[in-house]
Amino acid sequence: MDNCIFCRIIRGEIPSVKVYEDDDMLIIKDVNPQAEIHLLLLPKEHYANIVEMSDAQARTLAACIKKLSGMVDELGLKDGFRLVSNKGANACQSVEHLHIHILGGKPLSEKMC
Ligand code: DGP
After folding, report:
1. Which of 6, 34, 43, 107 could bond 97 through an S-S bridge, CB–CB 3.0 to 4.6 Å?
2. Hey, whose CA ends up nearest to atom 16 of ligand 1?
3. Residues 56, 92: contact at Cβ < 8 Å?
4. Cβ(16) to ligand 1 under 6 A?
5. Cβ atoms 98, 47 nearer than 8 A
6. Residue 71: CA atoms inside 13 Å, Cβ hemisphere, count?
7. Could you tell me which residues come within 8 angstroms of residue 98 by beta carbon, excluding any fewer than 6 positions away?
8. Strand 81-84 relative to strand 35-43, pairing
9. Residue nearest to atom 15 of ligand 1 (CA)
C-alpha cells in the first residue's frame, strides 16, 4: 500500500528502530510508548485489521506470535507482557495496517488511546 505508514516503514522509506525482522514480520519500537517496553509486531503483508485477515494471513500471524514467544528473554519481556490489537477508530486504531502492540514493564500512561 503506497501511503500506509507501516508499509513504508517495512519498505525502509520511513526510519524505525528495528528489533527483529524476517520474511513475514517486522518488530519495531513504538514511537509513542505507553509502557517501559512497547513494541509493534507488523506483518509484512498489508491488511487493515483482524476482521480483514484471510485464513492464510491468520496462519502467518499465529506463526509470528509463536516465534515471538521464543524471543521473550531477548526482548526483555520475561517478567510478563500484554499483546493488544486494536480494530477500528472506536477501539483506538489509528494505523490501518494490522499490528500487535507488545507491552511490557511498567505502564507509562493510563490512557486507552
Ligand atoms: P493504534 O492506535 O493501535 O493504531 O497504534 C498505532 C501505534 O503506532 C501507536 O502506538 C503509535 C505508533 N506509530 C504511529 N506512527 C509510527 C511511526 O511512524 N513509527 C513508529 N515506530 N510507531 C508509530
Report:
1. 6
2. 31
3. no
4. yes
5. yes
6. 14
7. 42, 43, 47, 48, 49, 50, 52, 53, 61, 85
8. unpaired
9. 31
Look up the pTM and report it: 0.97
List the grid coordinates of 20.
527483529
Half-sphere exposure of 60 (CA within 13 A, CB side): 19
**Alpha helices per DSSP H over 29-109:** 55-69
φ/ψ region of 48 (left if φ > 0, alpha if ψ in -120 to 50, else beta) reads alpha
- Nearest atom (ligand 1) to Cα of 33: 10
SS3 label, residue 17: coil
